[in-house]
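Bit of a strange request maybe. I'm writing a small parser for structure token strings and I need a real example to test against, not something I typed by hand. Could someone generate the tokens for this chain?
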Amino acid sequence: MGEVTAPGTQPRRTSPRVVLVHTATFRQARQLVPLLIPIAAVTGFDDGLATVVVLAVAVTALSLAAAALSWWRFGYADGPTAVVVTRGLLARSVRTVPNDRIRGVEVEVPPMHRLLGLVRVRVDAAAGSVGTNEEELVVDGVPRAEGDRLRARLLARRPAGAPEGERTAEEPAEEEIARFDNRWLLYAPLVGSYLVVPVAAVGTLFRLVEELPDAIVPDVPGPDPADPRVLVAALVAAVPLLALAAVVGAAVVNWRYRLVRRGGSLVAVRGLLTRRHTELEVDRIRGGTLSEGLGMRWVRATRVNALVTGLGQANRRGQLLPLGPRTEAVALLARLVEDPGPLTAHPPAALRRRLVRALGTGLAVTALGAWAAAALGWWWAPVAGAVLTVLGVPMGIGRYRALGHMAGPRSLSVRSGWLVREQAVLQRRAVVGWEVRQSPLQRRAGLATVVACVGAGSGGYAAVDMAAADVPGFTAAASSGTWAATLSARAG
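Reply from user aminoacidic:
Good idea to test on real output. This should exercise your parser:
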């Protein structure tokens, strides 16, 4: 397959300095590292320092070769109508994204990129599926000026037939919408995602130490880990350390966060080590979500994500407020989509369903625990079941109170969830269809689940266990145009 081509433009290469970045980070060679383990076993390497040095040199050489080949076979071109990226050594891959399908652009500056004057450009586009965890387009290792040119070029709005590079308007002024307050970092220990990172890092460190040869990590005498006093002391010390790590992690990710409106785009800039510049088109935003974990609700904190058509579940790139007070989040969301009003509570039958589910689990564990206590002497098993049963009451009530829905003149809102409660506020024009689900138990209780199907975010947002009699009125009121007329006629 030939080099990347695009009408009206020449193929471009990334900076050769990116080879140093990929060599140091083992980006291309990570898949080759496991192959060295059986090779080392066959050649009879021992577990001494020489083995570690030889393996490090071999992995570095592989990383350099893989990075150089990857750079040599990578090319990109941004033409008048599409962006084309070609990559691959043996299996060549060409990906083309039309410009009118681009939904957002993010410019990242990781630490090593910043040291070498490079950036990484990510392009989000509604141009087919490449996997949930993959990016649509990534151009890694271009100079900062080229990254800014790509960002401005890909999101530029030019009239049809305008010459390439012609500016149709002056640089728009910035309007600041939100700014991160450092006091909000105190919410971080109550956010699960900020706690997971330090826990995973500690686990990885311990695993790495265990895998190192004994000559490098000698045995150090210490207290017995099985001693209860050691376990209690470790837990007492771990709580403040994890809280501190969560605060530091949140600060690194959200350092100097700003959200501004620049012309027809929303621009979010944040990050300490890796600086990110994310730009989303305002015209593509169809609403937003308020996401609140259990701990966040205790301090009335929340997050705001934008729902952008074609962007899908890009939680990081669609994030407009990473963490902040609920009042700030609600005010920010109101600037994107009109508030439909207070949510309508769901009927008592929905509460009974949640209590039955929550208590049923606890009662089942209690019954099994009673048998285990009589047969095996596990006295703690029925106690655990009784505790689960008691905790089931507030859990069921909490899950019920999280339910709600409302249809306003220009928007609709649905809410559900307990551990993580999410409220989605959508423009009526965002709804492309409705799905009504009703299980036999829901039918018997006079309930139904209504899903608003949209082309943004997760693709559907549900009003769970609402009264079945209210479904026609809600779907008609939450629809627009011919949708509303059709649904109203059917409801009548």
